[in-house]
């Protein structure tokens, strides 16, 4: 969970720098891609945890 939050924070910081700094729009794109990848990985991990419940 801590790693998820750190990656989200890094994506937000990259996005803010990409918007604020002139000519660094690629940082905004990297931040968006990093955020999307983090959300996808978190969704996959959480869906795998839901399937491991024992059948009663």
Q: Would you kindly provide a written description of the structure presented here, covering whatever features stand out?
A:
This protein is 82% helix and 0% strand. α1 runs antiparallel to α2. The protein contains 2 helices and no strands. It is mostly helical and 56 residues long. The protein has one domain. The longest helix is centred in the last third of the chain and has 27 residues. Keywords: Membrane, Transmembrane, Transmembrane helix.
Write a short abstract of this structure.
This protein has 56 residues and is mainly alpha-helical. 82% of the residues lie in helices and 0% in strands.
How many DSSP H or I helices? 2
Helix share, percent: over 70%
Give the integer mean of the pLDDT values: 85
What shape does the CA trace take? rod-shaped
Class by alpha and beta content: mainly alpha
Total number of strands: 0
How do the helices and strands line up, and which of them pair or pack?
Layout: H1 2-20, H2 25-51
Helix pairs in contact: 1-2
């Amino acid at each position: 969970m801590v790693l998820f939050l750190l990656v989200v924070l890094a994506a937000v910081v990259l996005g803010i720098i990409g918007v604020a700094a002139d000519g660094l729009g690629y940082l905004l794109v990297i931040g968006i891609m990093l955020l999307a990848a983090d959300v996808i990985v978190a969704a996959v991990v959480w869906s795998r945890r839901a399937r491991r419940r024992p059948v009663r």
